[in-house]
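Subgroup meeting minutes
Present: P.N., E.W., G.H.
Scribe: E.W.

1. P.N. recapped why we're keeping a running log of single-chain structure predictions: easier to compare across weeks, and new members can see raw inputs and outputs side by side.
2. G.H. added today's entry (397 aa).
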Amino acid sequence: MHPKRPRLPIARRIRTLRGKVIMALLLFFGLGVPAAAHAAPGELLWDFRTDGQIWSPPTHDRGTLYFGSDDGHIYALDTRSRALKWKFATGGKVRSKPAVDGDLVVAASDDGYLYALDRSSGAQRWRFSLESHDLHRRLPALSNPYYDFLHSSPLIHQGQIFIGSLSGTLFVIDAALGKLAWQYGTGDAIRSTPVVADGRLYFGSWDDHVYAIDLATKTLAWRTDSGGIVQSTPAIGDGKLVVGSRSAKLIALDTQSGTEAWHRKIADDSWIESSATFADDRFYVGSSDSLVVSAHAASDGRELWAFKTGGWTWATPRIAKGTLYIGGMSAFPYYFDGVTLTSGFFAVDAETGREKWRFVPETVAGYVTGGVAVAPEIADGVVYVAALDGRLYALRE
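Output recorded in log:
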């Protein structure tokens, strides 16, 4: 026979009961403990809806997600409470990835302006003209072989903002004042997001070239013809700059000289809209008509594996804890007979290319019928996915 447990004092019993009730409520509403801890990888935790498709990659900073929508707004979403902190209305679609630096959030809009907002309140600090107010996008369509869906995103480096424009100009702006510091012109639109490494600025242009600008002298270090429109953002690793273009080639250039180290021809003459990612001596990149994401050896570009997404894989791969995350998009009708595009968001083993899990957002009306066009953000065990159905999804990592 077990001895009788002594009864707790009534005040302590009330505190214990109150604590259990509070914990139950926290669990019910997803607060107090991370919801991701109670879900399987890839499981939907929650979602947030906007009023337009999302072609803007989200940015996570100190518990807040910043992203744009085709509804013309820049959003700040608290990831713990899932509450909207603020949203700012621009005059056009917001397809650039917001950049965060200190108390500043910066993003570009199709209305032709770059906006700098207060990180806490969303109030406008300044706006800068990107000289692209007459923007007319050529959206993906069966009859349109030269679609234009991206926007260059701002890069903040040492107090300056670097961003490309439809005007063909790479603008460099004082982040505090919103005033032009200097600029560099190319022969066509710049949809590539610039990258800074070792004192140089790298980016691609619709004039088919990849550029390296010396930041100290603000002059051209080298310029290399890729053979096709460059939408993608350069990836740098192993002394090489790797970029895809509409030449259907993945090209590795020497970062110092711009000379070609190797190139990889993509099957089906597939354009490469995806920006490559470098990790563990490999470059990972998506494709268009090949409908795959693939891994390539940094040394010579040989293909190590390819994973079939079944859709246009225009997003930039993200690597975290040995897993590659990437989205695929669907469109109908497809111009290859007997092929039906599928959409989804995929988690793939970065070493082997084997699928771990997938998530399928809702379909949308139009020629493009759904999927994920941009890279996710990953923080605190959660993968944040922006989809063309207008939702921001939080999935268990």
